[in-house]
Amino acid sequence: MTGVWQDMMTFGIPVGEKIARTILVYVFLVAGLRLFGKRELGQLNPLDFIVLLLLSNTVQNAIIGNDNSLIGGLTGAAVLFVINDLLVRYSYRNPRLRRLIEGRADELVKDGHIVRKALQQNMITREELESAARKQGIEHMGDVQCARLEVSGALSFTMKEPTGPERHHIEVIERLDAIDRRLAALEARGA
């Protein structure tokens, strides 16, 4: 039984190499996700999902090298937790680093008009944008003041405020509906 414990607890590669490999792979993945866009995070299509799944398996060997020991795997995981925590904490305090890592939100709709260049840059189709709008109860893009692809990859929508005549029209419709309800109640009592 000692052979099993020894295999689980003995590093297959030096600890320094394990730490360096993990940090380099982490930096590579952060840069890759930054370069290939926010879409990878929030608007996954089946192809993007497959790539992200395969990516984790592909870089696994780069992190662990020839080390299949339990302690080696736990060391790699611990280094990932530590480096991620340090980067998150530092970027929280440093807006320039945060913008470098996360990028900026992109405006996809402005004053009800789709910004085609922004859609192209983020590889979002008009259909995907409209589908996301419908999920939030928005039927017409003309009703949207602004739609943004946030740094998290999520799409957010801000609706236009109704103009004075539009507000007046809404009020008139609401009053007419109230009158209809009263008339229906009166007819029900009289019947």
Report on the structure:
The protein has 191 residues and is of the alpha+beta class. The chain folds into 3 domains: 2-102, no CATH class; 106-159, bsu07140 like domains (CRO Repressor), CATH 3.30.240.20; 167-191. The protein has helices at 2-9, 15-35, 39-42, 46-64, 70-93, 95-102, 116-121, 126-135, 164-190; strands at residues 106-110, 113-114, 144-149, 155-159. Strands 2-1-3-4 form a 4-stranded antiparallel sheet. The protein is elongated and about 95 Å long. The model has no long low-confidence stretch (mean pLDDT 84).
Features:
alpha+beta; CRO Repressor; 4-stranded antiparallel beta sheet; 191 residues; 66% helix; 9% strand; 3 domains; single chain; 9 helices; elongated
Secondary structure layout plus pairing:
Layout: H1 2-9, H2 15-35, H3 39-42, H4 46-64, H5 70-93, H6 95-102, E1 106-110, E2 113-114, H7 116-121, H8 126-135, E3 144-149, E4 155-159, H9 164-190
Antiparallel strand pairs: 1-2, 1-3, 3-4
